[in-house]
């Protein structure tokens, strides 16, 4: 007990000096709610909090902390027109101020890629509204999206698995009414199909079925091919993928990735199903594989595009669609995307969040489907077109591609 008291006294004085500039003279068996909020950030702070609270209950502090947390959640949920009202003046007349994106700049810029998840970066404020566009209040504001499609979320990811239904509720509340669940391996495909089939919420769901290049070790096998064929026959499954090449993280040998990619493209050609394609630091190799199916390929979308203007032009010249995530909202990492956006026709663009990756909203590490509104805002601002036009055109494109109302035919 005396040892605990001594340690408690020393640590309390140190933290009080750090927080207030004055050392405490008398040790207190608990810390304030503000201090607890700061101290809980680290492992040692957690030990300190346990030590400081071992002799006196912290019911009062705990209640204060709970109240503060509830107030923060309420403030976050009540963020409404902030980013959207700022867009109203800009989306109708603002053109991109980021400079030209012609072919003379294409070769000078290397392939820029986006890292999933956890890298801190400066973000541009793209805060989505939270009012439902079809509510009585929302009907009075024509700037809320009539309907948006998020073409890629990962509900089998650890950071989204337990809360994807709540995420979908928040998405529907801001007008993101259709969502595509991305399959990256056989396990995630089974999970997504079961989840979409059992889902009773208001969002429309479709799935993709494919093997991501990260999971391509061993290449295509008859077993994998048969399993994919079975899942692609399910009515909830609308596209082949996520398939492609990723030479950035090198989690699978390149020959195995190419084998898996070629096998899935052949399956898409056979079944006449759209392709949901992942390419990262491998654009030339991916184009070589895709070109081997020229004239036979079904529609293709390059999901989560992070390449150069030259890469974008190569995909567009082949008739492919391009998916943009919240990376386009990031100040530095999205600069080159904002430069090339004016050269991408609006009817060849699809919107996505790649939930829970590619987070861009300040104060939150992960993305969620509701953030699709922020992506649409930024594209409207950069291209200098009305926000409603971005919503209408991108939704029509994604709706037709993934067959939310009718199977895609070509």
Short descriptors:
eight-stranded parallel β-sheet; single chain; 11% strand; 44% helix; globular; alpha/beta; 410 residues
| Number of helical stretches of at least 4 residues | 16
Task: Output the strand order for the largest sheet.
Answer: 1-2-3-4-5-6-7-8
Radius of gyration: 24 Å
> Tally of extended strands?
8
Helix share bin: 40-55%
Summarize the structure.
This protein is α/β, with parallel strands linked by helices and 410 residues long.
Describe the 3D structure:
- The chain has 410 residues and is α/β, with parallel strands linked by helices.
- The protein is built from 16 helices and eight strands.
- It has an eight-stranded parallel beta sheet.
- Helix 2 crosses helix 4 and helix 9 runs parallel beside helix 10.
Secondary structure layout plus pairing:
Blueprint: H1 2-20, H2 33-39, H3 43-52, H4 59-77, H5 82-93, H6 103-106, H7 136-139, E1 148-153, H8 164-173, E2 176-181, H9 186-198, E3 204-209, H10 222-232, E4 237-246, H11 254-271, E5 275-280, H12 283-291, E6 300-303, H13 309-317, E7 321-324, H14 335-340, E8 349-351, H15 372-383, H16 387-402
Parallel strand pairs: 1-2, 2-3, 3-4, 4-5, 5-6, 6-7, 7-8
């Amino acid at each position: 007990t005396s040892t605990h008291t001594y340690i408690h006294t020393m640590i309390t004085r140190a933290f009080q000096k750090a927080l207030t500039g004055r050392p405490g003279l008398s040790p207190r068996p608990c810390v304030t709610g503000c201090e607890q909020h700061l101290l809980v950030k680290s492992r040692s702070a957690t030990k300190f909090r346990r030590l400081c609270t071992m002799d006196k209950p912290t019911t009062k502090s705990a209640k204060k902390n709970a109240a503060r947390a509830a107030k923060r959640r309420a403030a976050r949920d009540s963020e409404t027109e902030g980013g959207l009202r700022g867009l109203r003046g800009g989306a109708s007349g603002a053109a991109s101020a980021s400079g030209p994106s012609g072919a003379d700049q294409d070769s000078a810029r290397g392939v820029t890629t986006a890292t999933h998840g956890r890298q801190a970066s400066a973000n541009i404020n793209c805060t989505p509204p939270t009012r439902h566009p079809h509510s009585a209040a929302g009907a009075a504001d024509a700037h809320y999206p009539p309907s948006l499609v998020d073409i890629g979320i990962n509900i089998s990811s650890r950071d989204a698995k337990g809360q994807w239904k709540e995420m979908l509720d928040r998405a529907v509340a801001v007008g993101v009414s259709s969502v595509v669940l991305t399959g990256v391996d056989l396990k995630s495909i089974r999970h997504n199909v079961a989840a979409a089939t059992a889902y009773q919420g208001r969002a429309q769901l479709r799935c993709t079925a494919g093997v991501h290049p990260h999971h391509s070790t061993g290449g295509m096998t008859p077993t994998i091919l048969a399993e994919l064929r079975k899942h692609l026959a399910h009515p909830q499954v609308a596209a082949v993928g996520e398939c492609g090449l990723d030479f950035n993280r090198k989690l699978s040998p390149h020959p195995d990735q190419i084998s898996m990619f070629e096998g899935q493209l052949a399956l898409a050609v056979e079944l006449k199903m759209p392709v949901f394609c992942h390419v990262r630091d491998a654009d030339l190799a991916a184009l070589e594989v895709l070109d081997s199916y020229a004239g036979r390929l079904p529609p293709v979308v390059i999901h989560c595009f992070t390449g150069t203007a030259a890469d974008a032009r190569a995909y567009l010249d082949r008739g492919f669609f391009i998916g943009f995530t919240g990376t386009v909202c990031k100040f530095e990492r999205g600069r080159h995307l904002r430069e090339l956006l004016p050269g991408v026709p609006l009817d060849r663009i699809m919107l996505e969040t790649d939930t829970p990756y590619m987070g861009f909203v300040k104060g939150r590490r992960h993305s969620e489907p509701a953030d699709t509104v922020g992506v649409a805002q930024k594209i409207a601002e950069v291209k200098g077109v009305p926000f409603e036009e971005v919503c209408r055109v991108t939704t029509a494109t994604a709706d037709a591609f993934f067959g939310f109302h009718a199977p895609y035919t070509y």
